Amino acid sequence: MSLTVVGTVAFDAIETPYGKTDKIIGGAGTHVALSASYFNKDINLISIVGDDFPQDYLDLLKKHSIDIDGIQIKKGEKTFFWKGRYHKDMNVRDTLATELNSLENFDPVVPDKYQNTDYLMLGNLTPLVQRQVIERMEKRPKLIVMDTMNFWMDIMLDELKKTISMVDVISINEEEAQQLSGKNTLVKAAKVIHAMGPKYIIIKKGAHGALLFGEGKVFSAPALPLEYAFDPTGAGDTFAGGFIGYLAKTNDISFDNMKNAVIAGSVMASFNVEKFGTERIVELTEEEINERILNFVDLTVFSLRKI
Amino acid sequence: MSLTVVGTVAFDAIETPYGKTDKIIGGAGTHVALSASYFNKDINLISIVGDDFPQDYLDLLKKHSIDIDGIQIKKGEKTFFWKGRYHKDMNVRDTLATELNSLENFDPVVPDKYQNTDYLMLGNLTPLVQRQVIERMEKRPKLIVMDTMNFWMDIMLDELKKTISMVDVISINEEEAQQLSGKNTLVKAAKVIHAMGPKYIIIKKGAHGALLFGEGKVFSAPALPLEYAFDPTGAGDTFAGGFIGYLAKTNDISFDNMKNAVIAGSVMASFNVEKFGTERIVELTEEEINERILNFVDLTVFSLRKI
Fold this sequence. Notes:
Chain A is α/β, with parallel strands linked by helices.
C-alpha cells in the first residue's frame, strides 16, 4: 500500500566514542523512508532541503524506490544541519550545533499524487508541520503514526497535544512518555497518552526494547543485545520506518500484526546502530533482515505454558 | 528432584510510597524457598535465626513443604534484621538499619539428609558461607546457582570471585554485572563474568526484565508491565526461586529449558511486588501462576518469521 513519510532530510555530523563523521545524510525523514523501503516499494517523502544538498543523496533515496517529488529544494538556502557528540554511555549526547536553515519556514506541500495515501508517517518535526500534512490530505489515511520528542514538549506542548489528538499511533521514548504523561510507570503513562487520542502507544526503551500498548493489551519487544552500539543516531526513526513499512506492506492494522511491525522496527533499529548514520541501512539485503528476524525469534521464544 | 537453598531467614521492616510494615518475615532464603515451593516439593533450607524468630514463621515455611532442619536456631541471639525505605522511583532505596545478629557468625551446617541434593541455590549471602555450603556437600550437585550483590563486590571481591568460580549459573542485576565486569554493555559484561567460571549468566533488569546468556546464546525475558510495584523487596530472590524451582521440577538443564525457568522466575517476581514482603507469594494458587504464564506468552509472542 502507499506510504507517505514527512520528516527532516538533513546533514548530520556525528561523534561517538568509536569515531566521527563530517556532514553526512541524516534526518528523521531519511531514516524512516530508507528503513521502510525494505518492506514497501510505494513510498513518498515530504521534506525540505537547501540547494546545497547533494544530488548523490537525492539519488540514494530514489534508488530505494522513494518518491522525492515531495522534497522542496530551496534556492539560496541551506539544508538543516545537526551536529552531536555521544558519550561513552550512548544514552547521553550533547548537541554541538543545530542550524535550522531551510527548515525554519517549512510549509509542507502534499503533491497530488500523494493524495489518497494509505499510510502516513509523521517523523519527528515541529508538531505544526505534522498537523499541516494531515490537514492537507484530502482523505484521511487508513493509519497515521507520529514520532515526536521532548524538545516539542518543552517549547510547544499545546501544539503538540493538538497533533497527538489526530493520530492513531504515537511512538516516543521512555523518558518522553513520562514527561508527556506526568506518570512514572509506563503502564500509567500509556493510559494518560491514550486518553490524549492515540489508540496505540509505542514506548521505545533503547537497549531495553519497546512496548506496544493498545486495545487493553501490551506487547514487549526486546532489543537485540549488542557488544556495542557504534552510532545510535536515527535508531528511533529507523524503528518507526520498519514499523510503518511493515504495516504498509501487509496492510493489516490488527494488534497482532502490530506486534510483528514492532519486531520489524526493532530489527531495523538493530542494524542502524552498527555503522554511522544511514551507512548500514542503505546496504541491507533481504537475507540479512530475515536472518535477524530469526535472531529475535531465538531471543524471545520459550515453550512454557503451565507449571 | 531435591533442591537445597541457602540464604538468610530474617526480619524485614519496609516502607514504600504505598505503606509500611513492622517486622515481617523476610530474607533471601525465605523468598527463594517459598517461590520454589510452587514448582518442587523436595526443598531444604539452610539458614540461621535467633530464638526471637516466631514459630508461626517457621510453620509457614513447613506448610510450603520446606524442610527447615537446616535452619539453626541460636539461643540467646537475635535474628538478622533489615529495615529499608523505597523512594517514589522504586529502583532507589535507603537502608535504614542492618542488624546482622545471629548471621554474624553463621557457620552453615548441611544435615545428612541434604547430602546428595540435585540442585543447590546459593541465595545472596556472604560469599564465604556460600562456598562453605558447596564444600560441605559430599557430592557436587548437578547444578549450582548463586545470587549475589554489589555489597560483596565492595568489601570482599576476591572471596566473591572464588565462589563465583565454583558455580554453574550466576544471577545478578544490571548495575552489578557492570561493576563486577568493568564493562558497560551487558553482552561484554556477560563475557567477562563467563570467563570467571559460570557457564550461564542471568542479568536482572528490574522493570525491563532479564537476560540469560550461555552456550553462545542469549534469551530476553520481559517483566510484566505493572501500574505500580507495591514493594520490590525480595523480587530478585523470588525470581531466583522460580528459576531454580522450575529446573528442579523438570530436571532439564538445557539452554532451552533454562529459558522456561527464566520465565517461571519472572512470573513469580511479578507476583512478589504486588504486596509487602512474602505476603503475595505465600497465598498463590497453581491457577494464578498458570494464568500469569499465559500473560507472558501474550506479552512476547509474534508470528513474524520473514519479510
